[in-house]
Fold these 4 entries.
Entry 1:
Amino acid sequence: MSLHRRRRQKSRKGSDTLIPINNNNNDDENSSKEKKEKELNFRIKNSKVMGRYMVAARYFEPGEIIVSETPLVVGPCTGCKVQCLGCYQTLNQKDKYHKCKNCGWPLCSPKCSGISQYYGHSTSECNILKETKSSNFLNYANFDDLKINLHALVPLRCLLLKSLNPSGYEKLMNMEAHNEIRANIPEVWNGNQKTVVEKIRNDWGLLEYTEEEIHTICGILEVNAFEIGQNGVNIRGLYPSAFLLSHDCVPNTNHNDEEKDFRLTIRASLPISKNQPITLSYAYTLQGTLKRREHLLENKFFECMCKRCSDPTELGTFTSALRCPKCEKGWVLSTNPLDPEAAWSCNNSQTQESENRCPGYRVTAKSMKLLINRITQEVDSIDCNDIERMEEFLEKYRNVLHPSHYLCLGVKLSLSQLYGKINGYLINELTDEQLTRKREICREIMKIFDIIEPGYTRLRGVTLYELHAPIMILTTRQYEQEDITKSELRRRLKEVVKCLEQANIILGSESPSSAEGMMGIAAKDALEKIRNWEKIIGKF
Ligand SMILES: C[S@@+](CC[C@H](N)C(=O)[O-])C[C@H]1O[C@@H](n2cnc3c(N)ncnc32)[C@H](O)[C@@H]1O
C-alpha cells in the first residue's frame, strides 16, 4: 500500500509494553497535549468529491510540524516477504529464524525485542494465534506459501483492538473503506475473501468476526494505511488523524516515521495558509500521469483531477512526453490526460512557423502504454548499481523520451547518487568529466523536483546534498591548479554552502538512523569544514 514509512526485552508471560492509549497518567497527558495541538493545527472539512479532508487552522512555515502521532496498529504489508512478527526484519528460509514457542509463528529470535510489545508480537496476539492453532497452516518448508498467512495478521490486529482498545477501534472503524466500490472489483474482493476473511473465520475459527466487518477492515487498510519502516523494515500502519490528508500529485507536506515507536510526523513542505487543504501524495511523484492515476484508481478508488494530472505537460515538466518521431522537434503528449484512453499527439502541429510545423503525429493510448511498458521493463532490468548501463539507457532513448521523462528522471536520480558512492566511482576518484556529469544531473533533476516535489522534501534534500560534492571537488581541483580566481572560488563556495544549509535543514528532520538522516548530519559536518575555508580566503 503506497499511501502515504527498541524495544526492551520482556518475558513472554508479561503484559505488553508500550500500550499507547489510556494506560497511564503520562500517556493521558501526552494524548491530551496532542489533541490540543491538533485542534490548533487543522480542521476537518467535507467535500462531495473527496469526503473528509484536512485544512490548515493557521499559517504554517515550511518544516513546521502539523501532525505527529503514534499508530493505532502496525504490521506486515500484503505481498511482503516472511517477516519477524516482533521487529519485522525479513526472514530467509536458509538463514536462522525462530518459531515462537507459544504460538508457532515466525520470529527472528527468542530474544526479539518486539516480543510482548504493543507494536510487535503482543501477548494477546500470541495467545489468540495459539488458541486457534493457526500455526497448523504455516508451512515452514515453503516460505512463499507461509507468507500468505501474514496477509491476515494486520486485519487480526485491528479486530483485536475491539476488546483491547475500544476507542482506537472506534477511530479505525470511522475511516473510509469504499466497500461499495471494492465489492464490485472481483480481484480485490475475492482476494480478501480468500486470504483474509476465510483465513480468520474458517482456518482460525474466529467466527465472532463477521465477513462484512473483516472486509471493511481490509478496505480501511487499503485506503488509509501508510507505508512505514526503516532499515529494511517494510510495514504498514494506520494513524488516528493523518489518514485525513487528501491526495495531491504536488503535495504540500512531507512525512517520516520513527524507528522506535513508528510515530508519524507530517511537516509542511511549503508555506501553507490558513484554510488551505493539507495534502500528501498517495502515488509516486516520480511517475507519469497515466501511472499515477492508474495507481490511485486501482488502489485508492478515485480519479485524480489535480492541476498536474489535468495538464498534458505536467506543469511544464514534460515528465510523460516523448520526442515526436515525425518532426523530431515537438513533444508527443496526451490529448486529454484525464482520459486514459485518449490519443497522444505532437504538440508542434499548431506552431506559427510553417517550415517547423509537424505534419501531424497521433498515436493511440494503447500503443503508447505498450511502448512505455516495454521501456519500463528495460529500465527495471538494469542492476541498481550499474552506472554504465544506466548511461547507455539514457543515450539509447535520447531521441525517444523527453530528458525529463519520468523513466529518465528515475535513472538520473540513481546516477546522481551512484557517482561518488560505489566502487570504481568513489567521489575522490571521479574524473573532472564524471564530476561535471554528476553536477549537471543533480542540477537537471532539481529543476523538476522544484516543480513536482517543491520545498522541504526528501528528494530535494538528498539531491542538494549530492550536488554539493562535485561542485566542491571540482572547485578545489581548479583552485589548486590556479584555473579559477579567488572571487570565482568564493562564488562557488557560496553555492556549496547554500546547498548544504538547505540539505541540513530539510534532512535534519529525518530520523538520525535513516540514510537521509545520516546525510543531514553529514551536511552539517561538511558545513563546519567549509567554514574553515572562510578563515583562509575571507568571508564568502
Ligand atoms: C485516506 S482517505 C482520506 C480521508 C477520506 N476522505 C475520508 O473521508 O475518510 C482517501 C480517500 O479520500 C478520497 N480522496 C482523497 N484525496 C482525493 C482527491 N484528491 N480527489 C478525490 N478523492 C480524494 C478518496 O475517496 C480516497 O479513497
Note: Residues 1-26 have pLDDT under 50 and may be disordered.
Entry 2:
Amino acid sequence: MTAEADRDVGVAAEADRHVRGTAEADREGPVPAEREPRTALGRVTREARPFLRARTGAIVRLGGWSLLEFAQTFVGGFAVARALDDGFLAGSTPTGLAWLALAASAALPAALATRGVFARLADLVEPLRDGLVRRASARALHTALTGTRTGGGASTGSVSQVTHQSEIARDGWAGLVLALRSFVFTAAGALAGLAALSPLLLLVVVPPLVLGIGLFLATLPPMAARQRDYLGADEDFAAHAGRTAAALRDIAAAGAADRTVAEAEAHARRQAAAARSLARWAAVRIVALAVCGRLPALLLLLATPWLMRNGLTGGALVGAFTYLGHSLGPALHALLTLVGTAGGRLVVVLDRFTGPVRLPVPPVPAAAAGAREDGPAGTLDGLPGRSPKAGRPQAPGRRPAPATAELRSVSFAYGPAARPVLDRLDLTLRPGDRLAVVGPSGSGKSTLAAVLAGVETPTGGEVRWLGRPARELAPTAVRTLLPQTPYVFSGTLRENLRYLRPEARDRELAATVAAIGLDPVVERLGGLDAPLDPRRLSPGERQLVALGRAHLTTAPLLILDEATSELDPAAEARAERALAGRAGAVLIIAHRIGSADRAARVLVMDGTRTVEGTPAELLDRSALFRDLAGRWSRTPG
Ligand SMILES: Nc1ncnc2c1ncn2[C@@H]1O[C@H](COP(=O)(O)OP(=O)(O)OP(=O)(O)O)[C@@H](O)[C@H]1O
C-alpha cells in the first residue's frame, strides 16, 4: 500500500470512528465535561491535532520552502540600513547601490519559494477536504441505516456538507496556512533583522506586537461563538420565513397571524442581538489590530531620540521602519484579517462536521395544507412535514431501538411565578406502547401533551424523541398531535385526509376510511372528491376527519388530546383500535373509562403527583383512578 493510500485509509477510519463516536454519544447522553470541549474552537482544535500530527512531513517541507521568505525579509531591511550607513551616508554611492541590488535580488529566491509553497500546500489542504467529504458521507450513511434522521432535510444537509461546506473549509484552511506560514517566517526574518541592526529595537517593537497578538487571540473563542450564534439565528429566521410563506393559507384559516408575527419578531430580535454582539467583538478586534499594526511604528518614532543617543545609526532606523512597513505590518495584517474572517468561518464549518448536526425542518407540502393538529397553540412548527422513514421500525441492529419519546425529569410551569404543572416527570413511550392519561380537569394532561409534542418547552429536564434531544428533530416528522377541536379546511375530504401525507394512495385512503368509520361521512358528502364545507360537519364528523388524517400519517408518535370527545363510545373504541394498529406509540388523553381500559398502561395525573400502571393495578393503587373510573362508568357517553 502506498503512503498516500495508507493516509487515506487513516482518514476514512478516523471518519468512521467519529461516526461511531457520535452515534454512541447520541445513545448514551452527553459526554462528560472533561472529555468534550465546550467551545467550537476547542472541539475543532482537538480534532485538528491528530490531523496535523499525521502530516508533520508536509509541514516541515512547507517550512523548508518558507525559509527563503525569511531570508528575503532579513536581507530587505538589513541591506537598506547598510546601503545608507556604509554607502550613501558614508559618501560611497556604489556601495549603497550594491546593497540595494542585493536587496532586490533577494526577491528572486522568494518567487521560487512561492512556487514551492503552493506545490506543497496541496499536501496539507486536499486531505482535509477528502476527510471531511468522507466524514459527511459516512454520517449520512449511518443516519440512513439507523433511521435516526428524517426526510429530505437531512440529505440536503449532507449534500451541503459534501459540496459547499467542505469547499469553504478547504479554501479557509488553505488561506490560513498560507497567511500563518508567511507571518511566521516574515516575522522571524524581521525580528532577526532588527536584532542584527540593534537589539534595542526589539525592546521597542516586541511588547506592542505581543500585546496586540495576545488581545487578538483572546477574541477568537468569543468571536467564533458569536459567529455561530449569528449563523444559527440567521438560519432559524430563514426557516421560519420559508414556513410562513408556504403556510399563509393555514395561518389565515387558523387565526394564527398575530402569533406568526410575534414569532417573526422574536427571530428578528434574536438575530439583531447576535449581530450587535458580533459587532462589539469586532470592535475589540480592531483595537487589537491597531495595537500590533500601528503601535510599534509609533513607539519607534517616539523612541528615536533615545535610540540615537544609544548608538542607533540613521541607516538602522530606516531599516527598522522598512521591516515594520514593508514586511511585518502587511504580513500581520493579512494574517489577522484572514483569521478574523475565513478563520471564523472555518471553525464554524468544521464544528458542523464534528459536532451534532442541526436538523433542517422538513418542507411544508404546498397543497392541501391547513390544520391545527398541533393543538390550540397552532404554531408554525405544527404545520405538516413528512418523513417516509419516520414511522418505520429501526433497521436490524445489535442495539435496542431507542424509545419513541421520553420525558427525563421534565418540569413545566406557565410562568416564572406560576405553580408548576409538571414536576420532574419521567415517562417513556416505546414503539407499540398505548398509554392513556387520566386526571381531573386542570391536572395538566393537555400540558403534558403539549410538552411531549414539543409545542411547549420544558422549564426543566429534557424531552427526547427517537433517542435524540427533541429540539434536534423536526416535530412534524416525529409526532402528530390531535386536539379536541381539530381544524378542517374547505376543499375535499380527500384533501383533508391526505393533508399530513399528500402522497397517500387511494387504497390506503380506502383502508383508513373503513378503519376509522368514515364511510357515513363519505356517503353524506357525496364521495371523497365532493366539495366539503367545514361548517356543515358536526363536531363528531370533524373529529373523525382528523382521526383519519392521523391514521394515514407515518409519524411514530401519536398524541390524542381528548380527540374523540364528540364520538359515541362505540365510534371512539373503533377509532382508537384503528390508531392502535399503526406502527409507533400512542398517547391518549382519555375522555372516558373505555380509553383507559383499552390502553396497556395508564398515567394518573393529580396535580404534580403522578402514578403509572395497568388499569387493574391502578384500581388497586390509586384512589383517584378508582374515583374517576366509578364516575365515568356512571355517566357513559
Ligand atoms: N396557557 C396557559 N397559561 C397559564 N396557565 C395555563 C395555561 N394552560 C393551562 N394552564 C393551567 O395549567 C394547569 C393545567 O392545565 P391543563 O389544560 O394542562 O390541564 P388538563 O388536565 O388538560 O385540564 P382539562 O381536562 O380541563 O383540559 C391548569 O391549572 C391551567 O389553568
Note: The first strand starts at residue 405 and ends at 412.
Entry 3:
Amino acid sequence: MVSVNEAKEKVIANAPVLSGEVKKLADALGYVLAEDILAPFSQPSFRQSSMDGYAIIHSDILHSGTELTLSGESKAGQTVALSLQSGQAIRIFTGAMVPDEATAVIMQEHTEVKEGKVLIHEFPVPEGKNVREIGKQIKKGAMALPGGTYLSPGSIGFLQGMAVTEVNVYRKPKIGLLLTGDELLKIGDPLTPGKIYESNSAMLIAALSQEGITDIEVTYAADDLDSTVAALKDLTVKNDVILASGGISVGDYDFVGAALKEVGTEQVFYKVKQKPGKPLMFAKKEEKLFFALPGNPASSLVCYYEYVLPALRKMMGRNDLFLKSLQMPVKYPYAFDGQRDEFLKAMIAGDEVIPLDGQESFALRSFAVADAIIYLPTTQNKVKPGDLVEVHLLPF
Ligand SMILES: Nc1nc2c(c(=O)[nH]1)N[C@H]1C(S)=C(S)[C@@H](COP(=O)(O)OP(=O)(O)OC[C@H]3O[C@@H](n4cnc5c(N)ncnc54)[C@H](O)[C@@H]3O)O[C@H]1N2
Ligand code: MOO
C-alpha cells in the first residue's frame, strides 16, 4: 500500500511524453505545441489606426480648437497609404493604414467638421496616440508561442492571424477501456435481479472527451482469467493507456491483477491509502501504462481525476497536470476514522465548499452534482465549519 503522494509521484514518473504530430491549425484546439513558433512577419505589419477619427501630425496641434484641412480618407482594407502634410488631417477608420507622416490619430468624438475643416478639441496630443506601430504586438522572428503552450481559442486565433496553417503538437494517447463484471448489463438488456447497467464506460469516455481524447477502444471481459488476459492483450496492441474497470479487489472473481501479470506488465503499485479507490493498481509495460480502476463508480472516477488524468496530461505535453487546487473554508463539519486519506465529492457555494451527502463509493448521485473534490489527509480527519481544506476543481 502506498500513500496518495507516493502514488501520484510514481504515476507521473512513469508517464512518457508522447511523440509529436502535425495537425491543421483548425484541428489543434486542446493540443500542446511540441515546438516553438516564431512570428513569420511583424504584427501589425503596417501602421494601423486604433480609432475612427482623423490622422494628424501631433505637433500641428498648438491649442484646443486647432483647425486643419481635410485632405482625404483612409479606410480599412485600402492598400496604399495616403500622404499627409503639415496643417492637414486625413479621415481614418479603425484598422486602416496610417499615413507615414502622421504621428497620431484623434478620436472623432474630439473633433468637429466645418466646411472642409477639422477642428481638433484635444490638446496636447501625445506622439503616437491611437497608432499601432509595426511590430507592436510581435516582431518578425520573435517567439510567438513557445513549445509547451496549450492551444486555446486565443492561441488558435493568434496563430491564424500569422497565417500559420499547421502546427507540430504532442499526439493524444489512445485509450483501451476494459470493463469487467458478469453483473453488467448493456442498455437495451432487461433489468433483472443481480444485474446492473454498466455505467463506468460512459463516465470514463465522457471524462476523456473533456480532455479531447476520443480514440477509445472498449472491450468487455467475463469474470475469468482467460477472458481478461485475452481482452488485455487485444487492447495493448494499439493503445497507449489501458484503463480496466472492476475486478481488482481480493474477491475470487477479481482477475485483473493476475491478468496484468500474465500479459507481462510490471506492477508499480497496488493499493493506495485512500477512500474511495483503495484497490487501485498501476502497472506498465515498456511505454504503455495500465490503470486497474476499482469497479465502484465513484472510486473509478476519483482515481481517474487524481491519477489517470495527470498521466494523460503529461503524455499530451501539458504542464498543468493535476486538477486545479485551492484552499477553501468548508461549510459543514465532516469527520472520518482517519485510517485512509479521503476524497469527498463536493460543491462550491460562493467562497465555501460543501461536502455532499452520499460519499459511498457505489453512489454516483453526489458526483452527478459535484464540481469539486475535497482532499482530506488522515491528519485532518475532523473538520469544522470555516476550517480550510484542499479543494480540487473538476474540469468544466
Ligand atoms: N474483502 C474485501 N473486499 C473488498 C475490499 C477489500 O479490501 N477487501 N475493497 C473494497 C473496495 S474499497 C472496493 S473500491 C471494491 C473494488 O472492487 P473491484 O475493483 O474488484 O470491483 P468489482 O468488485 O468488480 O465492482 C465493485 C462494484 O462496482 C460495480 N461495478 C463494477 N463495474 C461497473 C461498471 N462498469 N459500471 C457500473 N458499476 C460497476 C460492481 O457491480 C460492484 O458493485 O472492492 C471492495 N471489496
Ligand atoms: O476504496 Mo473503495 O473505493 O472505498 O469503495
Note: The chain has six helices and 28 strands.
Entry 4:
Amino acid sequence: MAKRILTLNQISVLGLERFPRDTYEIASEFAHPDAILLRSHKLQATDIPDTVLGIARAGAGVNNIPVDECTRRGIPVFNTPGANANAVKELVAAGLLLGSRGIIEGNDYVDTLAGMDDKAELNRTLEAQKKQFKGSELYGKRLGVVGLGAIGSLVAEMALTLGMEVMGYDPALSVDAAWRLPSEVRKADTLSALFSRCDYISLHLPVLDTTRNLINAELFGVMPRHACLLNFARQEIIDEAALVEALDKKQLRKYIADFPTPALIGRKDVILTPHIGASTDEAEDNCAVMAVEQLRDFLENGNIRNAVNFPTLQLERVGGCRLAVTNTNVPKILGSVLALLADQNINVIDMLNKSRDEVAYNLIDIDTTPPDELLQHMRQLDGVTSVRLIGDCS
Ligand SMILES: NC(=O)c1ccc[n+]([C@@H]2O[C@H](COP(=O)([O-])OP(=O)(O)OC[C@H]3O[C@@H](n4cnc5c(N)ncnc54)[C@H](O)[C@@H]3O)[C@@H](O)[C@H]2O)c1
Ligand SMILES: O=C(O)CC[C@@H](O)C(=O)O
C-alpha cells in the first residue's frame, strides 16, 4: 500500500518530486497519514493522527511542533539544519545595511516627491534634504552574534568580510560548529558582556524553554544607545514589553526583525519583514529535498538523520526484514524484545541500538517475518513505545 504524506504547508516541488509516485501519495488532507511534512504550520498535538510515524519540518525551528508529545508517542521530528542558513545570512546582511544607512527613510522621502516633474528642482530638493538620511559604515563596527550554529557562523563570516569585528556567545556550541567558526570571532563569556560591547547584535538561537524571553530589560539596560538589535531567529526569544520600553527610552536605536507583532508594527525605530528569512527559491528547495530524503529513509528503512528528539541511527540493509523499536531509555527492555524473538526462533541478522535523553531506538534485522501476535506482544512490553515492521522476509 502506498505511504501517505500529509503536507501542511506549500512545499517545494523539487522536494515533493523525490517521493516516487508509485509508492507514495501526497495531499494536504488525509484522514490516516503515515507522515506529516510541514514548514511553519502550528501543529497541535490533537491534530496528529495515531497513524503518523514521523514528522518532518522543512526548516530549522521546530517550535511549531509539539515535540515533547511526539517523543512520548514515539514519533521522531526531523528538521533540516543548515538548509536555509545562507538565505537567512543574506537577509541579515540586508538588515545590517538597513540599520546603518537611511535606505528606508530615504526611499520613503523620495516617494513623497512623486509628481515633482521639474528635474532641476527635484535634484536641488534631494541635495538639500539628503543630510537627513546620512548613516554610518559597518566597517570597523562590532557585531555580536548570539547562537553560532548553521546561521550564526555564516553571519559571523559575512560580517568579517564587511570589515566588522565579531564577538560570539553560544554556551551550547557543538564541536562541529566550533570547527566551522572563523578564528577571528571573539568569545563573549556572558550575554551581558556581548550586549554591552557591540554596535549591532544578531540573534541566531532556537526558542526553547531556556531561551524564551532571554533578551530582557537587564540586557537592554547595558546596550550602547546607538546599538541596533537584529532578530531573524524567533520573536519569543525577546521579552516584548522590555523591548518596547527600551525603544521608548531610546536604550537602543533600532530593532530589525522577521517577526511583526501589533506592538511593533508602524514604529519608526523598527524594521519588520514578514518571516521571509528562508523564503528564497534555493532555501525552499534545499529544505524540501533534505526533509523528504530524511523522511523516506525513515519510512523505508527506519534510519534516523537530523531528528530533534531521537538519536541519529543508520543501519545498512542486508536483506531480511527490519523491526524499528522505540522504548524508554531504561535497562532490560531491549533484552525483553530480543527474548520474544528468540522464543519464536527468529534469528537476528544485524542490530543497532542508540539512545538520546529518555528515548532508546533500535533497528533489528531478522530473517523471518514475525507473526502479528508477536508484534502485538512486543508493543505491550513495559517501556516499549512503538514497534514497526519494515519490509517482508518472504
Ligand atoms: N527567519 C527565518 O525564517 C528563520 C530561518 C531559519 C532559522 N530560523 C531560526 O534560527 C534559529 C537558528 O537556526 P540555525 O539553523 O542556526 O540552528 P542551529 O541549531 O544550527 O544553531 C543554533 C545555535 O544556537 C545555540 N544556542 C542554544 N541555546 C543558546 C543560548 N541560550 N544562547 C546562545 N546560543 C544558544 C546552539 O548551541 C546552536 O549552536 C532556528 O532555531 C530558527 O528558530 C529562522
Ligand atoms: O519555512 C519557512 O518559511 C520559515 C523557516 C524558518 O522559520 C526556520 O525555522 O527554518
Note: The first helix runs from residue 13 to 16.
